[in-house]
Amino acid sequence: MKLKIVVPIVVALIAIILGVSVFQGVLNSPTPETQHLYSVNVAFPNVQFKEPVGIYAADDQSNRLFVVEQAGLIKVFENNESVNTASVFLNISDRVTSGGELGLLGLAFPRQFNESGFFYVYYTTDNPLRSVVSRFSVSQTDKNQADVNSEKVLLQVEQPAPNHNGGQISFGPDGYLYIGLGDGGGAGDPLGNGQNRSTLLGKILRVDVTSAAGSLNYSIPRDNPFVGNNQGFREEIYAYGLRNPWRFNFDSMTGRLWVGDVGQDRMEEIDIVKSGGNYGWNIMEGSLCYSPPSGCNQTGLSLPIWEYNHSLGYSVTGGFVYRGAAFPDLVSAYVYGDYGSGRIWALRYDGMNTTNSELAATGVHITSFGLDQKGELYICAYDGYIYRLQHSTA
After folding, report:
1. Of the candidates 47, 42, 175, which has an alpha carbon nearest to the alpha carbon of residue 113?
2. Is the pTM of this model over 0.85?
3. Quick check: is 11 in a domain?
4. For residues 287 and 244, what is the distance between their CA atoms, to the nearest angstrom?
5. How confident is the model at residue 293 (pLDDT cuts 50, 70, 90)?
6. Which of 55, 47, 97, 100 is nearest to 74 (CA)?
């Protein structure tokens, strides 16, 4: 999302229809194969949320799900279709600036959550407008209640505009916390943050939250790509050249980092992000030259493995590589969607070639995908409901 995604947004200059584009040896057509073998249904019909932007499992064998509401609340409930209530796990609405693309945007549980009781959130606040990554603790007397007074701020990044905040945080298979930050907002990245490695904006960061170093409340992994540079590059940076990496996730089997990066006016893109990679923004929008309009130097850029134009949607919502048991035909496919059009696709990539199939046209604003502790997929929608895929009966 530019957080185009998280919200009914100001990005509604849509539909510049483009022809085919060829990159990385893959022919990407603007009209992928449409199958519609799937539809969606409401997973928990008796529970509704207010502007939910994420659904998560703690991987603690508790069979609970956590839903993030944009205004600053996290709700928790049992993963049971008949559940009829969700309790407040954390309420930090008093410190969250919400609305448009602002709010409580991300949640992450470390592998040691059962032992430490620590969890991490990403939110925006004001005076000055900034993004905050913080650690909280679970109450010692109630596992369904966090200690609202336990906040430890780890990172703060000032935001020049209220849009393109990113918002995803996720622990990688290496145990480090990855943080997605957008380019700081304003059409076309007017400050050039995407390509500027002296700022954290327009980047995916990688930090160690288990230790502190110097004045930081975290430390920087020694194998981060820009550690020890003498050019003023921020050493937290893992990858750069991103516009608004609203949702990203790791494949639980291969460890690949899949990123949905929200586009400007023409292309939405899917990237497999690697250490030190430059993903093009704002030189490129997807595989298309963006700046300058007369041409662009693509040397050293990593182009997306897949893109689609705004005839199909206008705000990509990154998903997951499916490794569950309910849908054998989707195993190893990257399932993702679009906030604007409500479409859901399955993308397969073998390291060279990609194939993309449209699974469903949902008609809902998809803000996020999530997995339960068994690896089954859920869909978070801005209408307040949590959905899941089902085989279409039509």
Report:
1. 175
2. yes
3. no
4. 16
5. low
6. 55
